[in-house]
Amino acid sequence: MLRALLLPLSVVAIAHAELCKPDAQNAFKVRISIKTALGDNAYAWDANEEYLFKAMVAFAMRRYSSKSTTQISNVLLCNVTDRVSFWFVVTDSSKNVTTVPGSVVEAAIRMNRNRINSAFLLSDKTLQFLKITSTLSPPVEPSTPVWLIVFGVVLCVIVAGIVFLVVSGIQKHKKKNKESTERENLEEKVEVTVTLENGMPCEVLDVKAGHINGVFPADDERFTSL
């Protein structure tokens, strides 16, 4: 009875060994750089981490296709090295002796790359699927809508323009008033000042040039000619 059970198991193990090997059909190589990514906080790659990797691949397959029934046991790892590199394949859950096409596995990994990276605290550069191209992280959407930001910028520009016009207008008005006042003062200085003397208006004498009083005759007319 025991031999009857061991025989199928050995056959399955041999079949799995043939399915998962370097450069096998539908196989992918993975290279992980934990020390580079985490430094002193790096964790050891052990059987538990391998189990988590299988679980994440199975999750990616099931999430990619709602019809997929991939189990953790369907994800096979082989040629694991101490520098943390290995190969893996995903077997068909219905037959378990054939592998899922590589294109399907690649599409599932690409679709769930961020989730897989997050599970191991790594990135595309430190968790490398060598035959699968890296995917860009989804763009981070700002908490404030873009249109609201643009509206705020335009509104600020308009308000700044209005303030500038008001301030410049006030400054021009003050300057104009100042020039008008200075012009009036200058005109008052140039204008002849009229004062009242003995109740009669007369011009202010020019101290430097003097002024001839017409009431008295000039010196040369004081005597009549003979």
Pick out its properties:
alpha+beta; Alpha-Beta Plaits; four-stranded antiparallel beta sheet; 6 helices; 6 strands; Collectrin; signal; cell membrane; TMM27 protein
What does this structure look like?
This protein is α+β, with helices and mostly antiparallel strands. Among the domains are: 15-129, Alpha-Beta Plaits; 141-176. 46% of the residues lie in helices and 12% in strands. The chain has 6 helices and 6 strands; from the N terminus they run H-E-H-H-E-E-H-H-E-H-E-E. It has helices at 2-19, 34-38, 47-64, 102-111, 113-119, 146-190, and strands at residues 28-32, 75-78, 85-90, 127-129, 194-197, 200-203. The strands form 2 sheets. A 4-stranded antiparallel β-sheet has the order 2-3-1-4, with helices on both faces. The protein has a two-stranded antiparallel ribbon with strand order 5-6. A hairpin with a 6-residue loop joins strand 2 and strand 3. Helix 3 packs across helix 4 (102-111). Residues 4-13 have low confidence and may be disordered.
